Amino acid sequence: MGQKINPLGFRLGTTQSHHSFWFAEPRNFSVGLQEDEKIRNSIKNYIQKNRKISSGFEGIARIRIKKRIDLIQVIIYIGFPNLLIEGRTRGIEELQINVQKKFHFSNRRLKIAITILEKPYEQPNILAEYIALQLKNRVSFRKAMKKAIELTEQTDTKGIQVQIAGRIDGKEIARVEWIREGRVPLQTIRAKIDHCSYTIRTIYGVLGIKIWIFVD
């Protein structure tokens, strides 16, 4: 069961909480869900276009959205300083204006805040993005996975599992390769496990990266 269900949804209410927090009537639920996805995509696109270093690395761990009647609060958790931090106040204001132009929020204000994570390599999204950049640069997939595990050894994580699926190294037949270090109890609900699924487009096709991190 631990392999067949999303670990975050499996642990909601125990060790995990929702990344979006708002209430809506059943007929308006899909509209609010699509709005959240568009807000996250617009923020990521803005950072990609305006980052200071053109390495393709965003460093976004997660984006939390809280909606009220008159306010939409967005909290961006990042692992490394980027363009938004170089000119923090100005960067946030420009980002808010950019998002507000794309969405016509009726009678609602938009407030964006940024939180810098002390240990970025504890976040599966950042590790998946790192592996994706290595694969785009033609680095061996085994070397990329082992390097990602070495980065997590500097943190307080108790275990990590990395999985890559697709036409790895341009082989004609798709396959799944994975590596694990430490304990990753996927069937234990009380175990705090962070998870992410990341898609990367290469010249050979689409590869899927999944990472499980046993935090506590």
TrEMBL record:
Q: Which Gene3D superfamilies match?
A: 3.30.300.20, Ribosomal protein S3, C-terminal domain
Where located?
Answer: Plastid, Chloroplast
A GO molecular function for this record?
RNA binding
GO cellular component annotations, sorted alphabetically? chloroplast; cytosolic small ribosomal subunit
Domain (Small ribosomal subunit protein uS3 C-terminal) ranges: 131-213
Task: Provide the family line.
Answer: Belongs to the universal ribosomal protein uS3 family.
Q: What is this protein called?
A: Small ribosomal subunit protein uS3c
Organism encoding this protein: Dioscorea zingiberensis
Q: Provide the gene name from the record.
A: rps3
